[in-house]
Every structure is written in C-alpha cells, then in structure tokens.
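#struct-pred
JK: can someone run the complex with alpha-D-galactopyranose? inputs below
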Amino acid sequence: MSEGVWAAPGRVNLIGEHTDYNDGFVMPFALPHSTRATVSRRDDGVLRLRSAGARGAPVELRTADLAPGRGPGGWTDYPAGVVWALRDAGLKVGGADIVYESDVPVGAGLSSSAALEVVTALALNDLYELGLERQPLARLCQRAENVYVGAPTGIMDQTASACCVAGHALLLDTRDLSQWQIPFDLAAVGLELLVVDTRVHHAHSEGEYGRRRAGCESAAAALGVSALRDVAYADLEAALSALEDPSLRPLVRHIVTEGHRVERVVSALRADDVRALGPLLTEGHASLRDDFAISCPELDLVVESALAAGALGARMTGGGFGGSAIVLTEASLSATVTSSVAKSFAAKGYEEPRVFSAVPSPGARRVA
Ligand code: GLA
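RT: done, structure tokens with the ligand placed:
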C-alpha cells in the first residue's frame, strides 16, 4: 500500500555559474518540471526502485549493503546514494518501495539528478520522521552525489530543488548557506524567460567540470585565500598579475566577474529594473564562453540568434558543454525569438532545440 507521493523540481540558474564551489553566490529558481516519487516503507531493509515508464524488473538493493562505488551504475545510484548518505549520517532509515515519474528533461543541465535525490530524501525524511530541515537535507543529497555517485558538484542544485519558493529566485550564499527569496515575477512586467534545451550533452563534461573546480582551488591556494569568493572585484587586476600560472587567470576572471554580476542582478531586481538583467546575462555568457571555456557551438548559437531576434539577454545555464540556455525577452517577442533560434539550428543541421517558458515554481513538497 502506498504511503504517499512527493515531488521535487528541476531548476535553472539565473546567474552565478560555477560560483558554488568557490563559496560564492548563486541565484537559481525552480522549474515547473518535477520528479514525483510514490513511496511506501518496508520493514525488511530492502530498497526497491522503479521508474514508472520502464519495463523490466525493479532494482532491489539491501540498505545495509549500500556503499560508495558499489552501486550498479545508472539512475538508481542517485536515490541509493541518498539512502546511503542518510544512514551514514546516523539517521535511522530502513527500506522502501519507490516508483519514480519525471518530466524534468534528463541530461539538459536542468538538475534532473538533484530532483531525484531531493524527492527521495524528502519522502524518507517524512516517512521515517528524521526531522531534517531543508538545508541539511540538501547537503546530504550533495554528499550522495559527491561521494556515492562520484560527481564533484557544488550545493546549488540540491538547495534549489529543496528550498525554492514559487514566484521567487533563490539568492544563496554558498559559504554559509544564508538564503534570500527574491520576488521574480516576469509576467507582471511583460517579460518572459525561455529555456532552450540544445539537446547536446558532451560526454567529457564531468572531467572538464572537475578540472575547472581543481583549477579554481589551485588559484585560491596560489592567492592565499580560502576560496575565490574572497578575491574582491576591485582587486581582480592585482590578483591576475599575482598568479604565476597563466592558465589560471581566465578561471579567476570568470569567478570574480561572475560574483560581481550576481550583485548587479540583485541590485537591479531590488530596484525593479528587470530589463537591466538582459545585458548582465549576455555578459555572463561571454565570460563562460571565453574565460571559463565551458560553452559549445550550440549554446553560443542560442545566444547569438536570440539576441539577433531582439531578446534582452541570454546565456548558457548550469554545468556547460551542452544542456540549456536561458533567454530573457519581452513576452511579445517570445514567439519570434523561439522561431529564430529554431531556424538557426535548422540552418546548421542541428537537432531542433526544445524551448519552453519558465516560471519560478515551488520547491520540493509532499503532494499526496
Ligand atoms: C552543475 C553543478 C552545480 C554548479 C553548476 C554550475 O549544475 O551541479 O553545483 O556548480 O553546475 O554553476
């Protein structure tokens, strides 16, 4: 018998890219797309995982045997990793039957894996009465991804899925995890934010992500700070000339200028000047493309063709090397922008991108 249904959303990040593992600020919001889990407790210590659409037998694992590096691989490592992380933190979690259903595009840089982790953690938190608040819950989900799955990601995606609020973007200080819910109602000012999934996913992206992270950590060490967040924007030029290894300079320039862009976005939103976000998004894209070097031709084409059609600004979002871009446009122009992007993809022979309008939606919750 089923004991309940929980949902956790995917996310897009408005600004603050690759800053989360540099102790900086990020500003994601939750998508209307979510992963749902129908969950019942089992008292035999077995974790039984199934995807609603899939044929074939469910994956069955003994919770007591879960350990990093021992998972079968594939999507079930994410929920299994969450159960491992909860138990490893000393929390009393037993078995469960879980059936998942999701409309978060997979491999699109929209955090389908964080949605999977967070929905699992939230359901088990409720069913086993673990008493976890949202932020520690997100932290355990990150640990599942870092240690059990082995992907060296930051804290943004899990926090976004767990903590976002409808109608708001979440300003998160990844150093001390303070949060501010910033009202973000584009429709009220005649604007729209499009998400363009390029459907491109480069296989080497995980290794590149780890290399960027390691580069940022080396640069922080060379500059004598605990994280690049501690390099003030006013001190950027001095920091760049202090670095002996020239390959680290563009990484530092991106992280420091991106921190400054987050500040400018927050000021613009606080001043109700939402249109001012456009050029800041585009500037962020140039920095990710030229300095951080994590864009790809398809993402660049979304930005170029959207701007050529009159969009206010655009940039890649998420980890990079494919996935999705966001485009800020006057709502009255959104159909023109969408068809211009689609046409430019067709002209290059790229697969047709998936485009949808994103409204800040609720974070993870019990739905039944
Ligand atoms: C991925 C990671 C996040 C963050 C972004 C880039 O989504 O999971 O932690 O680093 O890339 O901003």
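RT: quick notes.
The longest strand covers residues 28-42.
The two ends are 13 Å apart (CA to CA).
JK: thanks, will look after standup
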